[in-house]
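[audit] Reproducing an earlier prediction to check determinism. Same input, same settings, fresh worker. If the tokens differ from the archived copy the diff job will pick it up downstream; this log only records the rerun itself.
[audit] input (426 residues):
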Amino acid sequence: MRLVTAAVALPVVLAACSGGSAASTHPSTATTTSTTSPTGPSQADYAAARKVASTYLHDLAFRHTTAAARLAAPPGASAAASLESLRRFLARLPVARLGMVEQPLASLDGKNQTGVLVTLNVQLDARAPTAWIALGQRALVMNLQSDAWKVSQDVSGRPSVGRQVTGLALFVQPHLLAGTSATVIYGPTVEGPLAHTILTAADAAAPALAARYSGGPAARRPVIFLVADRAQGEKLAGRTIDSSVTPLGTQSSSFVYIFLRQYRQADVEIQRSSVVYLETLLATRSLLQRGPQRLWAGVAAYEEDADLRSRQFLLPLDGIQSAYGRGYPSLLRWTSTATDWGQSGNAAELASQDALAIVHEIVAAHGGTAAVRRLGRRFAALHQPPGLPFTASQVQAAFQHALGVSFATVLGEAHAYVAGGSWRYG
């Protein structure tokens, strides 16, 4: 077995997962109630224009181009080009379901004209639909022609519109790779071979992780966004991912984000195993996110280590072996719900190794991944308010109830496992 430096592999910091986002919740199809401009169309006229705009976008999304063309009447070459760009954008996506929320744009109102701002959400791949993904907003100019409303132009790029550039709208030309289980979405600057390599790793890992930990549609059909860095990931998500530094990527809500600037610098073995780590966070999110962050990250590290071992690599435990001899405060660390355990640098690395060692013993000696699930459910039953640490007695009680042994017993087994050195040989 060859060692893989855990300082690169393990501290993939968990994203904050409280709350929802347009990308992860089923979008409402209700129209936002808002009054139109006093000088613009009436409410009835706006309702008619809104219906045409929604139908037009639906037809484009499902490639009913002839039907969509009957609803459009661009006044010139520039307007026609804007609608063609919108068509090409939607044509790149295998839309399974489409959700829309419309609202008036009074700034575009005029004689026989109104504006409709549409927030779009999609599920991709009809074979096994993904979680809901935000497509961002589109601003359409609607003109009344011969008593019929027509789509005149897509003016989403105008600053005066106030459109939020989030979701897949961040990618002017989104590229999508759909594998047997996973989907990878990226922009035109990403090399195809890199995206295929990531998809291959994700496809291989997803079925087993979903079978072991459930995780719902997001785990059964994981969606992985390839972004330049965390800042671009936040624009794509339309929300703060996390304030912590994340080396290779993160999991947020129903998706995985890989940060390409850091990812490209990693060893090829770490690149693959980090995909497994992140997918495990996704698969165990609903099960473990309400427990100690050490449990959640430890399970992800356990799955990453298993993937590495299948290729004759492993994650080292040398650091925690020495720390255990100096009285490392494992129980204190296991009370934390902080996304990075309040640690950084070498301290975060020790926390990662401690998590891996203890989860190894939970799986090996106390019932496999079923024991992990029992422990996750027990912590969830404590209904700890988000952000607040558990008490030491709560951790002890959860282990005793879920596993039938104390935390001290499992910790002792972890000490023996690390000291014995068998982890070095698979």
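[audit] rerun output stored. Observation attached for the diff report: The first strand starts at residue 2 and ends at 3.
[audit] end
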